[in-house]
Design a protein that fits this description.
The protein is of the alpha/beta class. It is built from eleven helices and six strands. Keywords: Membrane, Transmembrane, Transmembrane helix, Transport.
Amino acid sequence: MIRFFISRMEKKYRQEMLRGKIGLLAGIFGLLTNLILFLSKLIIGLSANSVSIMADAMNSFSDSISSVLVLIGFKIASKPADKDHPYGHERFEYVTGLGVAILITFVGTQFFKTSIEKIMNPTNIHFSWITLLVLFLSIIIKLYQGIAYRYAGTKIDSQTLIANAKDSFNDVYTTSAVLFSVLIERISGLRIDGYIGFILATYITISGLLMVRDFVNELLGQRPAEKEIRQIEERLNRYPNILGYHDLLIHNYGPQKSFASVHIEVNSQWSLNQAHDVIDLIERDISKKLGVHLVCHIDPVMINSEEYVEMKQILKKVLKKLNGDFRMHDFRIRYKLMLEFDLVVPESNQLSEDKIKTEIARELRDLNKSYQLKITFDHNYLL
């Protein structure tokens, strides 16, 4: 069903509107199904006197609120950029996702007390076939809901919907556990309802905390996905007339709002117009193919200078001797007296910056190369 509606939307709406429409569809679908599950589980949980079923019902209630937050999030995230928000509103998806995660965590913690009380003072579950039927149908609905969320989330690259898909699949396992406890008590008489409720409360709480961590990282600005880095790298490698690139930085302002900057190394003998034409082509290419707004900085390289080429090779050997993971860029020879370059320091490095500089100077003196050193230490670039 969800595939049918999405295919209709793809024909009806422009690409810039499609994301918001699919997000709203997924939110409405989730809200309706979760409300049905919440009410049915709550009724049978109260009638059966089962804390695990009621815990599962409250989990469905939190999923209903999550669906409301998804609706609000996509509605606001789809708003165009304005004076106060020049990069758009797409990051609001992360805000609503964080709200969902906090809510899930709260619901989980509340059921710890109820479950412990049931363990300390166990009571029988009032068995009925309608209870089994509702729980079984709940598993089927949650399974389909997870498939629908995952399909919609993949279509529009929404981490919020994909997270909801994972939550739906996890609910399949939790409801299955509740069904198991009802059957065990019916067959053997063992009252494990409180223990199952405690396990579910633990699971819900941990899931919520992990989601809080993920969405906080998104809002703080975590490292881009390796796939995104590799895609930009692959596009840059297609330009044989540039000498190299470094200092790649990527900033995401939402799932479809990526900005990046990179330093492009070119022959110092190129004219300004020639260099501009090349980086302009790179920027337009990456924007068109990857949807990333890239800004390129030109770094001229003196590849026709024998002294430059010789000293660069010597420095590379010296750095490799100190640490095979050291990377150098922006190499310059200033006034034939000073070597100036940026050094990217890896996590494996154990030397202080002063020690690195001292060791490089010593190695150069041993080679009878008398230069002063001006080193800028980099720690946070992607390439």
